[in-house]
């Protein structure tokens, strides 16, 4: 319910409309629900951590190199996403586009490596149905990957809207919200890196 | 798959249901076509984003589901009325008790309460609508479609039969083959999306859209209860989402989360289910507490006793609701330390609930009480709910629970909590706010009949079950031997069940009778005793923009304050300004329909259909994202005309 309101020019564009403010708060609440969702997945993964049955153990298959590249790509994308929002607040549409497209490219690179990793594991005999452990692994990492995929598609659609309509209180709120989502995925990945990959390599050793 | 595997065949009851479903559908189609109502249906209801209309649709769906779940209950009671009965076979009985439990919790109790929250909360906080009206429509339609998907299972493909808790490995592919259990997983998943969105929507609405002056501690108690419920929803429903998804992976894609093979862990399901399931109990009972608080205060003509204690009690309950889940399976092998911890947390959660009971009693103390039907239901609630609560504390003691668990004692306990708590509140709230929705009251004389027949029936049905449980009658069995000696009490219980059924029919008649004969209300304060803003509208049924001028709140129970100040609720003509409102949209309806296609495809493992449905869902999301949805303005002239203001 947008009202024409008076703002001092320090109010960021995305907070200038009533709808924008409500949507941003609503999205924070949604991220709260997402935390509950990923917490449940983490709990499930940790409960099933040693339940590899006859399948391979993570220690046999995990390779640090690919995971480090994925981590590097995704963490950098969070940084570039932050710059994109900074450019948006400077009302620099071109800067927003350049940095957002870099962000999406890094995200796509992350996804590429993840898909390659999944394919490798399947070839080495670890798939969703191999054991409880691998079910847990593929679902938690896959859920994150699905979120990244959706994020890329969603941000692309929003950029098209910005290209068509310019930076308005409506479009900038959408860009800002999608950036919150993108940073959130980054945070989740840090936990996945720790709880899945590092513990998988260390705790399963021996 | 052959057609006789697709449709459920071989049972005369099912054929009867097929015929009645067919006739009902034809009847509705005929009515809509003959009276040229299609356009009206589309414009006024299917595309609406008005919180009041969505609330009414929620409640109407919930009453239908109450009928369906009630018929399930009566079929079970007929089967159990006599020993060694052949009325239902074991499989059919299992299906019916599974659908009874699932429908009553997910598709009756929650939508009924969410419906009342939808109608009342925005009015009670002086808002034009909810924060996200479009999302509200998405919530309703995904709930409705989830419910329909679940409900068609008994004529197409077969119903789930692993109980509403769907414990593994019973609910796995080996022991529950076929599409039945998939209906449970997909139906609840789709409806769960709607519930989560409702949680987000009302949380933001209550936090951000209150009328000026209404600080958190001036909010009506029903609003408080809704706020806390929404917080529980936001953190509990994702757990259900994950649990359902994992079981879906187990059943459809051969994963090993809860299976016996592949080192899966069946108890993980029980834990995840109740990690959601116990907060769910409070999701369906806290709004009930809120409504009883409003009703008892209104008809005692007194301010609610212990307002702050009430609020903190609910906050504590919300926190503890996440810390008691193991008490649902004390007997399933955790060891004494874990059981002791959860035994204690369970007893602690009884304390804030007890505080609330005393607050209601003290609210009535020295009050000038009007014994209207909503008040009667509230009084009935206090008495019956205490029975449920006390037996709950008995069950909370882990060692004693080994005796009570899996017997009819437990069944009687949770029916005393859920019927006396939730169902009574749904009836009380529906009758109380009925004039707000339709502009006339339900007939009070008939309403009193409903109350007494239902109450007597309820106690006749469930008190014998306490005794049967203590006598060792296990739950979840489809029959028992004559030698057990349980026949007499079971017959009595069945009689009570049918009394509740009769009460439901009288209620249905009351809907009709009041529609025809009730006097139409001409003020917003239909009971004459209103305390909160929903009664401060100028007409009995508020216009779609709710308040012509947003009210300013100076005290708790703002309408009482306005009455004291002799302040007129009618807005001043010079204050009227144009009002911005959201556009109607057909997209939520189509989005939910695509969810149905996707869900139905996955139930039968027709993956092409699942993919088509999901693509449809994404297309509707994109359409919505590109829609500018700027809304429209209600002009000053229109508002003046609606409010009958003249210069």
From TrEMBL, chain A:
Gene Ontology MF terms: cytochrome-c oxidase activity; oxidoreductase activity
Q: SUPFAM superfamilies attached here?
A: Cytochrome c oxidase subunit III-like
**Which compartments does it reside in?**
Cell membrane
Q: What EC number(s) would the UniProt record show? A: 1.10.3.-
On the tree of life, the source organism's domain of life is Bacteria
InterPro entries, alphabetically?
Cyt_c/ubiquinol_Oxase_su3 (IPR024791), Cyt_c_oxidase-like_su3 (IPR000298), Cyt_c_oxidase_su3-like_sf (IPR035973), Cyt_c_oxidase_su3_a-hlx (IPR013833), QoxC (IPR014246), Ubiquinol_oxase_su3_dom (IPR033946)
Entry's Gene Ontology BP terms: aerobic electron transport chain; ATP synthesis coupled electron transport
Which Pfam families does this one have? COX3
Protein topology in the membrane: Multi-pass membrane protein
Tell me the PANTHER family matching this sequence: CYTOCHROME BO(3) UBIQUINOL OXIDASE SUBUNIT 3, CYTOCHROME C OXIDASE SUBUNIT III
Tell me what this protein is called: Quinol oxidase subunit 3
Species whose genome carries this gene: Fictibacillus enclensis
UniProtKB/TrEMBL annotation, chain B:
Q: What Pfam families has UniProt attached to this entry?
A: COX1
**Catalytic activity from the UniProt record:** 2 a quinol + O2 = 2 a quinone + 2 H2O
EC id: 1.10.3.-
Where do the TM regions start and end?
A: 12-34, 55-76, 96-121, 133-156, 183-204, 224-247, 267-289, 309-330, 342-362, 374-400, 412-434, 446-468, 488-512, 581-600, 606-623
**Entry membrane topology:** Multi-pass membrane protein
Recorded GO CC terms: plasma membrane; respiratory chain complex
Q: Which GO terms describe its biological process?
A: electron transport coupled proton transport; oxidative phosphorylation; respiratory electron transport chain
Looking at the keywords, is Acyltransferase present? no
Q: In which pathway does it act?
A: Energy metabolism; oxidative phosphorylation
Record's Gene3D superfamilies? 1.10.287.70, Cytochrome c oxidase-like, subunit I domain
| Localization annotation | Cell membrane
Note describing how the cofactor binds: Binds a copper B center. Heme A3.
Q: Cofactor(s) for this protein? A: Cu cation; ferriheme a
Keyword annotations for this protein?
Cell membrane, Copper, Electron transport, Heme, Hydrogen ion transport, Ion transport, Iron, Membrane, Metal-binding, Oxidoreductase, Respiratory chain, Transmembrane, Transmembrane helix, Transport
Q: Per its record, what are the GO molecular function terms?
A: copper ion binding; cytochrome-c oxidase activity; heme binding; oxidoreductase activity, acting on diphenols and related substances as donors, oxygen as acceptor
Family as reported in the entry's similarity comment: Belongs to the heme-copper respiratory oxidase family.
Instruction: State its role.
Output: Catalyzes quinol oxidation with the concomitant reduction of oxygen to water.
Report the protein name in the record: Quinol oxidase subunit 1
- Species this protein is from: Fictibacillus enclensis
């Amino acid at each position: 319910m947008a009202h024409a309101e008076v703002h001092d020019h320090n109010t960021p564009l995305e907070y200038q409309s009533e709808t924008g403010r409500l949507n941003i708060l609503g999205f924070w609440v949604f991220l709260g629900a997402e935390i509950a969702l990923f917490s449940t997945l983490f709990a499930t993964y940790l409960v099933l951590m040693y339940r590899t049955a006859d399948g391979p153990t993570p220690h046999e298959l995990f390779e640090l190199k690919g995971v480090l590249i994925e981590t590097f790509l995704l963490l950098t994308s969070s940084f570039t996403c932050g710059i994109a929002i900074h450019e948006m607040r400077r009302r620099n549409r071109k800067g927003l586009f350049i940095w957002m497209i870099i962000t999406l490219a890094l995200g796509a690179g992350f996804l590429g490596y993840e898909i390659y990793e999944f394919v490798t594991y399947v070839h080495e005999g670890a798939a969703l149905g191999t054991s409880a452990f691998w079910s847990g692994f593929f679902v938690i990492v896959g859920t994150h990957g699905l979120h990244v995929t959706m994020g890329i598609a969603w941000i692309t659609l929003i950029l098209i809207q910005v290209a068509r309509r310019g930076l308005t209180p409506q479009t900038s709120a959408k860009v800002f919200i999608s950036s919150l989502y993108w940073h959130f995925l980054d945070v989740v990945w840090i936990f996945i890196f720790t709880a899945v990959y590092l513990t998988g390599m260390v705790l399963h050793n021996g | 798959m052959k057609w006789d595997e697709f449709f459920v065949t071989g049972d005369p009851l099912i054929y009867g249901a097929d015929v009645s479903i067919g006739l009902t559908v034809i009847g509705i189609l005929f009515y809509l076509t003959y009276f040229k109502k299609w356009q009206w249906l589309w414009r006024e209801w299917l595309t609406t984003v008005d919180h009041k209309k969505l609330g009414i649709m929620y409640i109407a769906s919930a009453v239908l589901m109450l009928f369906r779940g009630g018929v399930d209950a009566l079929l079970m009671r007929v089967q159990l009325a006599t020993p060694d009965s052949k009325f239902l076979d074991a499989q059919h009985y299992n299906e019916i008790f599974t659908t009874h439990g699932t429908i009553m919790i997910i598709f009756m109790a929650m939508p009924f309460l969410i419906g009342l929250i939808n109608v009342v909360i925005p009015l009670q906080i002086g808002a034009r609508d909810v924060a996200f009206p479009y999302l509200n429509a998405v919530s309703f339609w995904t709930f409705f479609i989830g419910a329909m998907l679940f409900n068609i299972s008994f004529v197409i493909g077969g119903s789930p039969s692993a109980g509403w808790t769907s414990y593994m490995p019973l609910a796995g592919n080996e022991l529950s083959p076929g599409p039945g259990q998939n209906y449970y997983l997909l139906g609840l998943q789709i409806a769960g999306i709607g519930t989560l969105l409702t949680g987000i929507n009302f949380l933001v609405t209550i936090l951000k859209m209150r009328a000026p002056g209404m600080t958190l501690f001036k909010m009506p108690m029903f609003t408080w209860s809704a706020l806390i419920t929404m917080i529980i929803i936001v953190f509990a429903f994702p757990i259900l989402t994950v649990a359902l998804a994992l079981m879906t992976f187990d059943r459809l894609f051969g994963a090993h989360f809860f299976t016996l093979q592949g080192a899966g862990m069946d108890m993980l399901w029980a834990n995840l289910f109740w990690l959601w399931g116990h907060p769910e109990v409070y999701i369906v009972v806290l709004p009930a507490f809120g409504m009883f608080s409003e009703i008892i205060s209104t008809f005692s003509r007194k301010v609610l006793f212990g307002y702050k204690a009430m609020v903190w009690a609910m906050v504590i309950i919300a926190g503890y609701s996440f810390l008691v889940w193991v008490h649902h399976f004390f007997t399933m092998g955790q060891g004494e330390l874990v059981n002791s911890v959860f035994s204690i947390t369970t007893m602690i959660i009884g304390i804030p609930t007890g505080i609330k009971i005393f607050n209601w009693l003290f609210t009535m103390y020295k009050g000038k009480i009007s014994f209207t039907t909503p008040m009667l239901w509230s009084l009935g609630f206090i008495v019956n709910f205490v029975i449920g609560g006390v037996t709950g504390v008995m069950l909370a003691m882990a060692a004693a629970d080994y005796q009570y668990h899996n017997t009819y004692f437990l069944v009687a306990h949770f029916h005393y909590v859920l019927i006396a708590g939730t169902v009574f509140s749904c009836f009380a709230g529906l009758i109380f706010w009925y004039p707000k929705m339709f502009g006339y009251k339900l007939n009070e004389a008939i309403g009193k009949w409903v109350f007494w027949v239902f109450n007597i029936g309820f106690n006749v049905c469930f008190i014998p079950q306490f005794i049967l449980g203590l006598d060792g009658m296990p739950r979840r069995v489809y029959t028992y031997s004559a030698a057990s000696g349980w026949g007499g009490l079971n017959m009595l219980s069945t009689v009570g069940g049918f009394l509740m059924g009769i009460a439901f029919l009288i209620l249905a008649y009351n809907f009709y009778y009041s529609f025809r004969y009730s006097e139409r209300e001409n003020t917003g304060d239909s009971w004459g005793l209103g305390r909160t803003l929903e009664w401060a509208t100028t007409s009995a049924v508020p216009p779609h923009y709710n308040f012509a001028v947003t009210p300013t709140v100076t005290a708790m129970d703002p309408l009482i304050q306005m009455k004291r100040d002799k302040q007129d609720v009618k807005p001043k003509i010079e204050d009227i300004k144009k009002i911005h409102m959201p556009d109607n949209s057909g997209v939520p309806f189509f989005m939910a329909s695509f969810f149905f296609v996707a869900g139905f495809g996955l139930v039968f493992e027709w993956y092409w259909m699942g993919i088509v449905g999901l693509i449809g869902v994404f297309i509707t999301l994109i359409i919505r994202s590109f829609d500018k949805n700027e809304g429209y303005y209600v002009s000053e002239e229109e508002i003046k005309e609606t409010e009958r203001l003249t210069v």
